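ok trying this again, last paste got cut off
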Amino acid sequence: YICTNFHVVNGVDRVKVKVDSIVYDAAVVGSDERTDLALLKISPKEKLEAVYLGDSNTVKVGDWAIAIGNPFGLDRTFTVGVVSAVGRRDLDLMGDSQTHIQTDASINPGNSGGPLLNVYGEVIGINRMIYSQTGGNIGIGFAIPINTAKAVLEQLKTHKKIKRGYIGVQIVPLTEEYAKELGLPNNEGALVGQVVGSGPAEKGGLQVGDVILKAGDTAVKDFGDLVGTVEKTSIGKTVQLTVWRNKAKINLFVTVGERP
């Protein structure tokens, strides 16, 4: 099994994978546009050595980062830099729930889908995209954390697609002024602006105007925290939501459904 980016294989007729001098025909097992990940499969006669997947939750700003890829067709190009951020969000307006590792290890066209490693040779991310006005590297590159990739790839292997949790609410901005009106100490939380009819949230008693402060054991500081927690929750599992309503905390129980 081989991990790459969704945008690398999207819309192509055939996928080939080259290992050393051998070229294999690859099948796309599954892909997910939201996280920009795809899972490929090849059938080599010999045993290939896999990379070791690390733990992206342990990555810290200032850690060394090593990017390996095939930029501009230059195979096995190896660049080194440091991690600038571990939770950069809303890079492509995909819902503000997915975080990225930011690094200045040079990532150029052709690096997509390659590994970002730490100094121990452990994969901590999948190189994905850059910020650039010229198309070349300017020191701002982003990688998908490997812990995100692990969960996505396991689902792609089993279901060929991603089944995401969903409760059926629309969240609107919670300003400091409105938070004060509601009796909250700050504007942390997810303000419910709309509840989908007959959706999990409505069935669980959630109402427009509620502020979700906690989902399970996770404090909800903003929309991204809520989406991230719900999407990772198994479909059919009941999650406890701590909600601010009428200047008091109440607990509601919502059974997570599958995102349409």
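PB: full thing came through this time. The chain is about 15% helix and 40% strand.
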